[in-house]
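Dear support,

We are seeing what looks like truncated structure output for some complexes. This example has two components. We would appreciate it if you could run it in full and send us the complete token output so we can diff it against ours.
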Amino acid sequence: MDFGPYLMLATLEGAVLAAVLALMASGLSLVFGVMRVVNVAHGEFYMLGAVLAWWVTSMVGGGPAVAFVAALIVVPVIVGALAAAADMTVLKRLEYDPERTIVATIGLLYILQQVTLMTYGADARPVVPPFNTRLALPWLEWSDGGLHMFWPWGLSTTTYKLFVIVAGIVILSAVWAMMRHSRIGLLMRATQLDSEMAQAFGIPVERVYALVFGIGAGLAALAGVLIVPIQQAHYLMGGDALLLSFIVVIIGGLGSLAGTIVAALLIGLSDGIISVFFSPTLAKIIATLLVAFVLVFRPQGLFGTRDR
Amino acid sequence: MSKSSESKSAVSRRSALKTLGLGAGAAAALPLWARYSSAETAAPIRIGFQKHATGIGAAYGRWYDRTSQAAVRLINEAGGINGRMVELVTEDDGTDPKRGAEVIEKFATQSNCDVAFGTLFSHVVVGSAPRAGELKLPYFVVSEGHHVASGMLNRYTVQPGITDVKSQVQAMAPFVSQNLGKKVTMIFPDYAFGHDHRDFFTAAIEAQGGEVVGLIPIPPTETSFTKYFPKIPRETEVIYHVMVGPGVLTFVKELGEFFGPSRPEIFGFIDSLEAVDLASPGLEFLEGTYFWEGNPRYAQPDQTEYDKHFRAAIGIDENGASINDSKDVSTYAHMFGCWETLYVIKAGMEAAGYAGPQDRAKLIEAVEAITTMPHSNEHPQGAKVFNGKTHQVFGPQYISKVVDGKLMVVHTASIEDGMYPDEVDYTTQAL
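Here is the complete output from our reference environment:
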């Protein structure tokens, strides 16, 4: 394949990964930003999103499109409610102590993973995409003294992959708007700045925490629902996703939404491009190296602010 | 006063419990002891089944289990082995080499198994076999890997139920070069099993006057594949694919999306779609492509009585899916290996007069002495030739074409097509 079309394909593949990663990592970052909780079980909420999407789509009749829309609405709510319950029954009782919550969420990780294995099983199961048309993409070439359009071999994407990219942008804009312009966003930001002061001003901090933990898990579940028609739902899929979101969040700066999105684009696109041109292993090596450099030279992340 | 009476009553309670305990112990021990007097013939033969119940091999594990349970049931109904019942002792290895070695150790030292059996994934076999050799535990693998016949393992590891990759690709290469094309790009999983494919197919296609123009290794835990496909050289005439793990359906689907309407010829190992329904959305492009099959998943027009018997015993319909759930597609091209291996263990134990773990060496020698296995209910996939020196069996291979969404056999490679010179003589190693 020529360099140009090759690069375009790599960019498209990278953009799909970036969209999913940005959704997931923004959930992780939100939870850390507001609650100062490092949620190790975040990857399992992503997995639960995918697994429940399979479950919902196989329960709901009326064609793949209806079933998928149902999953898109129902699944994040279920997972969010589950996470909020976990927050109220476990994390709250640990008084959000940073070390103990890490251990608690590790426990949560294993519980969710093993319960999925015991009920859903060890198989990878597919979900039918609501629509999936292959789009061959043209490329321009300078020949015979003019620009000519041609259709390179293999340069294509699918409508569903484009939808994932668009959905990622829309959902993240919605999250950003909620944080900036809604009352609940204001409460969250106030809690993030100083939870004691917020409480003193009558903000129900505990309820805000439960809500934030629920929204964070819901975002991961949403990413899971979006990815499952491309990949398949499998009980171990949370591991890699968690690792990548940690990489994204560390590079972007824990707690910074803008940083998370920029880092997701950086990691997603570089993973796509490096694995196409060199090897997927090299892409992982470079991402991990980048984390090391960020931790050494700018521990607060590219967009993070230093802890007060 | 009250204190002394309390302690007195406590003592008497304790002694009462002691007596009760003794009685219970004796009651429990008695039948055991009684059974022991008539031991050797009555105790079941225990076959340790190393099952990929979880991890990337789970789909295979489920069907290896069903096949093995069915074969053991039939063996027991027919009177067992040497008059003793057979019992499967199942342990999950998580499709993980380290855990695999631990499972082997548990079979030998804790659960008193006579032999170990049933491993598929080659990295687990390579991780487990050395421990089986050290413990002198006969280890019957159903793995396809070339590591048995290559001499890499030991005298206690045997593969009598399924052919190895070297034999398979050697039997396929003439068909590929004569019917599909000479310039091949290979896509394979990046571990021992995939490397066997890479090395042996490259050699085999060159012997046929063809060449491999591109090699694309993919980590077996990968979940997204489109990014690998641009490396397929433009001159490619045939794509040769073999993939394993939970992402196989995604792999084949994305391969179709990549090529669209202008695909080259495609030849795959059914491993890329084992346990996957061919009618899954996105697989329509496979129409007219070719697959290697160890055993034809769809019942063919010339289906043998043996194949009918095999399907009925496990509960599989003519499309290779469970009769209870048509979405639950079997790993039909591989699982016959478990069935046939169990019958080889039976034949070996009968020939050796196997009575207990002290006869394990005799069992290995008896299996090494086996030469041919006729096409029968015991060997439903086809007749086999066993090489006692390399511990590897040879059998027929099938090439099927996707016609109307079903795999129809278009070519059967003979046993001889897959033969190659010996690379090891395990019989010279000490037992």
